[in-house]
Predict the structure.
Amino acid sequence: QNWDIAAMAQIAGLSPSQLFRRFKQATGTTPGTWLRDERMHLARHLLTATSDKVATIALRCGYADPFHFSRDFKRLTSGSPRDFRAGVRAR
């Protein structure tokens, strides 16, 4: 499922602003940050466990744009998805 904050709020029966406040109070992070971190966790797993193309992994992780996915991945892991995969395989 391609999750977003509005969908999460609807499932919780809250407005997006109420979800934001309650989520941050309970977890110490925002729903958007949590969602991005979960997507990156899945991406790291898929990059190591599959031979899928990076664009395919981006889609499976909820990114419509592989370039946006790669930019977020680089920002959070200090390397591109391809570099991450190559590093894991080299070990």
Remarks:
- Residues 31-49 form the longest helix (19 residues).
